[in-house]
Amino acid sequence: MISREQFITVLKNGKVLAYKCKKCGNLQLATTIYCNKCNSQDLESVEVEGKGKVVTYTIQNVAPEEYEKYKPYAWAVVRLDAGFNISGFLPGIDSPKNLPINTRVKIVGYDERGIVLSLDK
Amino acid sequence: MGAGSTKYGKLKESVVELAVNAARDAIKSAKLEPKDVQYGFISNVFGIADNQVHLAPVIMSNLGIPHVPGLTIESACGSGSIAFREAYANVAAGFYDAVLAVGVEKVTHTGTGRSTTLFSYCSDFLYEGGSGASFPGLFASIARAYLTRYKATEEDLAMVAVKNHEHGILNPKAHVQKRITVDDVIKSPVVASPLKFLDCCPFSDGASAVILCSEEFAKKRAADYIEVIGSGRGASPAAVQGREDPTTIPSTRAAAQQAYKQANLTPKDIDFAEVHDCFTIAEMIDMEDLGFFEKGMAAMAVREGLTRLNQGEVTINPSGGLKSKGHPIGATGIGQVVETYEQLLGRAGQRQVKDAEIGMTHNFGATGASCAVHIFRRV
């Protein structure tokens, strides 16, 4: 089984550890350990590109206290090109004008801010 | 068969005092003595912020019934309704004749920054709180998806706040008793776009308590009581990213479906509903998921004032809701039942829903990861 540590190591390389279901072909985040479509336990781990587009997001004007120093930033839900969602911290966004829905983004790391995204130009 | 609540707001009492005060009022209103209580279901999330976990035995000891067992239940902002559901299930199963359900929260002393962080622990932390999202932020992302997809505006969201404040003014125990306008909401500081300060419920302290008992016990003791006729539970993927459609909350739909089925009722039969409006967008989505309006039509309903007190088919949040009455998160779900008790017994004063016969409570944890819905009838 994939540990949280392994999952984070892969995020640091801009990729996402996923499980592919050998029974139904579903791809999902490797933090869920049985297939979330058919519930099969027969899964293989694969690395997918941390690239995709913004499904929805917010800009945090009031942030949890540990994040106050990083403002302005957005938190976004991202549809990866691999076909499932992830979320993360997107620095430097101060207005909805700068982040239309469907904007291309990519994972660039994992640090004290969590899963870190950037615009994928 | 009995209900009590402290005022909601920034309170000086400890988490234990708040719980004990609400429990005392509930026991008194049921015309019982503490020793009649056979079990205590306590809902709380952040007791640790007031240096007290393992709340159940401390509360029971302070009620002078240290030998009566209890259980503390944590399901984020949905703790209260979920504790109520467990209490209901235990009485329905015949384990106990009369039990106490008390919800309590004490957080305002920690300040806004710390509270924002504490609440973020209720999310799926790796992906949400631990990547910079606050709770207003998570609901803001839901709001952005909703406003993008449906014919709804930030002004429509503001109307929810205006309506709930109108109701809250009539509730002496409400945290925020202040009339506001759509303009006030729109011009209030942005917390997490598109949600502004006045789209958000306050951080509150407070406690609410009810006594649940078997019908036989209620009849024997001849106290005033209302009847639980439907109870449902639902669950959703813990993170917003796990939802196929972020503009609907699957746990609400599942819990409501079970409760309607058990009660043999439809949304048209509900006279009023206390729903989970932690943010204005939440009330819009709740109204659709509970079946009061078609998907995407809640904005129209709010715009036309259909959910205001005694203005339409169903009054939504006669108490003022989380938005105005306040949201002491462990207490909220039980507080909704207290409001329903008062409404169905005709004791709600100026905010009384006319001829109220059937009431509903809807309360969820986090962004709807866990939910319970109950339906009540006047006896």
What does this structure look like?
The complex is a heterodimer of chains A (121) and B (379). Chain A has 121 residues and is mainly beta. Chain A has one helix at 4-12; strands spanning 15-21, 27-29, 43-49, 51-60, 73-80, 85-91, 104-111, 114-119. Chain A folds into 2 domains: 4-49; 51-119, OB fold (Dihydrolipoamide Acetyltransferase, E2P) (Beta Barrel), CATH 2.40.50. In chain A, 7% of the residues lie in helices and 46% in strands. In chain A, the strands form 2 sheets. Chain A has a 5-stranded antiparallel β-sheet with strand order 6-5-4-7-8, with helices on one face. The mean pLDDT of chain A is 97. Chain B folds into 2 domains: 2-109 and 204-221, Peroxisomal Thiolase, Chain A, domain 1; 134-201 and 226-378, Peroxisomal Thiolase, Chain A, domain 1, CATH 3.40.47.10. In chain B, a hairpin with a 4-residue loop joins strand 11 and strand 12 (370-378). In chain B, helix 1 packs across helix 2, helix 3 (79-92) packs across helix 13 (329-344) and helix 6 (154-169) packs across helix 10 (280-289). The interface between A and B is medium-sized, with 33 and 36 residues. Strand 4 (51-60) of chain A pairs antiparallel with strand 5 of chain B.
Shape of chain A: elongated
Radius of gyration of chain B: 19 Å
pLDDT below 50 for ≥5 consecutive residues: which ranges of chain B? none
Number of helices of chain B: 13
The overall pLDDT average of chain B reads 97
Largest sheet of chain A: 5 strands, antiparallel
Main sheet strand line-up of chain A: 6-5-4-7-8
- Share of residues in strands of chain B: 15-25%
Poorly predicted ranges of chain A = none
- Quote the CATH topology of the largest domain in chain B: Peroxisomal Thiolase, Chain A, domain 1
Number of domains of chain B: 2
Percent of residues in helices of chain B? 25-40%
